[in-house]
Amino acid sequence: MQKDAYTYLTEHGIKPSPQRMAVMEYLIANPVHPTVEAIHAALVGRMPTLSKTTVYNTLKLFVESGAAQVLTINEKMTNFDADVEPHAHFLCAECGEIYDIAENEEMVKQATALPENFQLDTTSVYLRGICPKCLQKKNK
Amino acid sequence: MQKDAYTYLTEHGIKPSPQRMAVMEYLIANPVHPTVEAIHAALVGRMPTLSKTTVYNTLKLFVESGAAQVLTINEKMTNFDADVEPHAHFLCAECGEIYDIAENEEMVKQATALPENFQLDTTSVYLRGICPKCLQKKNK
DNA sequence: AATCAAAAATGAAATGATTACAAATTTGAA
DNA sequence: TTCAAATTTGTAATCATTTCATTTTTGATT
Prior knowledge:
Chain A is α+β, with helices and mostly antiparallel strands. In chain A, about 40% of the residues lie in helices and about 20% in strands.
């Protein structure tokens, strides 16, 4: 069962302003790892004064508070994910979609638990290639 | 035993121009995951006409040919690695250094072999936190 | 319900890595 | 030597992200 944005924010010590609520609601409702651009474009209709800077500030705050994670899987743009549980991500070189690969969470945990004298804060497993949809399209 | 740049380039089907040789030699001799900026700065002394565009072009070619890999572990900048064997990378939030974490290569392989209907091209395991050196400095 | 300082949001301008592109240079086969 | 293809170069554009000064909102206190 998915937690609501209000609870999620306050549990991470984030004051739930209207803008922050809107961004977090969007992240939860659209777990497709949106970019700043996409989030802003989606929300500015119902929240006309929302600035892109606020979206940047808000996401930065989420990440620092552990309420979201940054994906740097795409060189061009930064993507965001409200799911902070360890799972792998797959970027399709054809369509650009980023898939969640959660089926082997335990292995991801093991592979990302390597360093000993290191203080480990965040981990990412990034896979790249071509997704089933695009593979099928190519074999038309 | 480390292969020389010439062999490494030709084995990947890359014509070894002076610029390409210089960049590959630098990558092999300095496995610290340098940026375009760092590579250019290091080489322009002995190769004064080397342009940054050429460094960009050259690295792009290396990556497309499988002679190097891109690291997107750092949001700010792209880093390059001539070691294309699967291994994890650790970015220190304090000093910015990127460490190779090779000690558990088998687990990395397993964790990055997840998708089935997906065509998998490249994999990355990124860890972030604070390195031993910086941890020690903090406990001065 | 008015006041006011702190927090948050805004928008314009700056930054800086990367890319596009046209011109110049180099390469190597004929 | 000739010449077209490949490579390199430098400048200018692109564009995501950051900076920063100003404006707005919030919420505690009179």
